[in-house]
Sequence to fold (686 residues):
Amino acid sequence: MFMNNKDPMLEMFIFENSQLTERLEEVLVEGDSKSDLDSEQINEIFRIMHTIKGSSAMMSFTNMSTLAHFCEDMFFYIRENEGVHPDWERIIDLCLQSVDFIKAEAAKIQQGLACDGDENSILSEIKEYMKVLKGGSADVALTEDVKADVSAPPQAEIAAADGELRYRAKIFFQPDCKMENIRAYQIVSAIMEIASSVTSNPPELLEDCSEDIVKNGVELDILAEAHIDEIKSRIKDSIFVSKFDVTKVENEQPALEVPLGAEAASDAETAADSAAQAAEQKAAPVQKAAAAPAETSVKQSYISVSVDKLDKLMDLVGELVTAVSMVTKNPDLDGLRLDNFEKSAALLRKNADELQDVVMSVRMIPVSSTFHKMNRIVRDTSRKMNKEVELLILGEETEVDKNIIDNLSDPLMHIIRNSMDHGLENTKDDRLAAGKAAVGSITLEAKNAGSDVIISVTDDGRGMNKDKILSKAINQGIIKENAELSDKEIYSLTMLPGFSTKDQVTELSGRGVGMDVVKKNIEKVGGSVLIESATGKGTTTTIKIPLTLAILNGMEIKVGHNVYIVPTLNIRESFKPSAKDIIVDPDGNEMLMLRGEVYNIVRLHEVFGIEAASRSFEDGIMLMGEDEGKTIAIFADQLIGEQQVVVKPIPSFILKRIGTIKGVSGCTIMGDGSISLIVDTKGLMA
Fold:
C-alpha cells in the first residue's frame, strides 16, 4: 500500500517507528559493548520488534513487517530456551542490519517513495543462524504467535488451570493518539509475558478496528497466575492510555463474546447504570468490569505535537513580542506622563516575555538522542578500521532547539569518523609506545555558555600535523607559500571543500568532504567550528551554536541614520579607538593595533554604501568581531545597547532582485516599527 505522506496515521507511524528504531539501536550497541544481552534487554528487543511488526503490518509495509517478525522470532526462541548459547556478536550484527533496513524504508516513506526494499538477503542470514541456534534443524519457520494470538476469535471454552486467575480489563486511549488497535495489540503482547491466555474484543486487533476501540475501548479476558497489580502495571506502562479497569473474576466465566458498548464507569452513578444495562443483557461478568472504578495512568503526561505547529507558534510569539515593543515604545508617547499605561505596559511586557520563554522551552530537546547515535558510528567505524575505541559522553542533558538538533547528527558523525581515522593511532603498539592506553578514547561533551551551547569532540590521538596541512594547502594553491597563518587558521584549512591530508581515498576519508559538511551544516544554524590540536596529545573540535534560531541576542549599533544588529555571539569587546593604534599600509588598507596584534578594519558605512556621521575613528566606536577563530575590527558611529530581537529572513523578492547581500544574515523589526539588518561578521571577513 502506498499512502500520501500527509496522512496523519502515516505520520504517526513514521514518528513512532523512528523512536523505536533509535531505542533498539541504543540497546543493541549497549549489548555489543559487553558482548552480551541480559534478559531485560532481550525482552525489550523482543517487544520493540513485535511493535514494529504489528504497526508495519497494519500499514501494509510487508518487507518491514516480515523482517521484524523474523528478528522477533529469533529473540522469542532465545527467551524461551534457556539452554541455548547465542553468538551475541552475530545476533547484534543481524539486528543492526535489520534496523538499518527499517530506517531506510521509513526514510523512503517519509519522502513519498514506495517501500520496496528487498529484505531477503538479511532474512537468509537470520534463517541460517536460526538453524545453527536450533542445532542444525532443516528448516526455520516463523512462530505463529500461538501463545499471544490476539487475532484469534474469542474462545469461550478456555478455562483457568490450577493456580490461574481470570481477570477482565477495559482500556481506553487518549483522543487522537492514532493506531489504537496497534496500541491495544502492544498491551496484549506485554500482558502475555505473564499470562497463559489473553482474548480481546474486538478480536482482530491487527485489522483496522481503531474506530471501534475509540468508541468502546478494548476489552481483555486474561488467564494468569500473576497478581492483579502486575496486570495493572503492564497497562500503565503502555503509552497513550487515558483510563482503564482491571477486575478479578471470582467465579469461572466464559471468555468475552460481546463488547461492553459503554465506557468504564468513573463514578457510582455511571457504574450503577452500566450494571443495570448489563443485567438486562444477562452478562454477569460484564457487570463487574463496568462497576469497577476507572484507573488513570499517571505516567502519560506528554502529547505529540507537529513541529510545523510549533514553528507557527514560535513565529506568532515573535510577532507578538515585536508588536508589544511597537506599542510600548511608540514615538507618539514621547513626553507624555501616563502612569496607568506604564503599569499596563510593564505587565504586558512581562507576560509576553514569559510566553516567549515557555514557547522556546517547548522546542528545546536534550542532545542525548543525537549523542547516543554516535555509539553506533564508533562501533561500526572501529570494526572497519580494526581499532579499539571507547566513546565517553558528557552533558547529554543539555538542551537545544529542535531545528538545531536536526542539523547536528551529520556534523558529529563526520567529526568522530575524522578523529578515529586521522586522529587516533593506527595500532595498539603505536599507542603503547606513545605512553597511552591501548584503547583509544573520544569524548563527546555538551555544555551551556550563556545563550549558546558548546559541543566538543576530543580525541587522545596523534594530533594534527601543521606542516603537512600547510604543504597540502600550498600545493593546491589555497594559500601563498609565504603566508603567515596562526595555528587556528591552519587547522581551519581542513574544513575547505576538497581539502584532505589523506594520500589515498578510502571508504571513510580522503575525498575532502567530511569537514566541509561539518562547516556548512553548523553555519546553516548560525554556529561556528573551531579546531585545536597538540602534537602527540590529540585534537579538539569545538562547535558553538545558539540555543535557538528564532531569537537573537544582539548589540544595536548606529551608522549614519541606520541601526544595525551585531550578534553578541560574535562580539569579543568594544571600545573607543585611539589614532595612535591605527595603521595604514602603502595600499591604503586600515588596520588596528591592539595588545600587540594587528586586525583589519571594516567601516560599515563603506560596506553598505551609506553616509556616516563619524569618519574619524576617535569619534566612533570599534567592535572586535569574532568568527571561527578569526577576528576583525568593525567601525560604527555609535553603540546603542543590547537588544533581544526576532530573526527574520531577507524577503525573497529582494533576494531575487539584487541577489545575496554580503555582510547581512537577516533582518528584524524594531520597537518603533523600523527594519534593522543583522550583520554577518563572517561575510564582512570575506
Q: What stands out?
A: Residues 8-33 form the longest helix (26 residues). The longest strand covers residues 440-449.
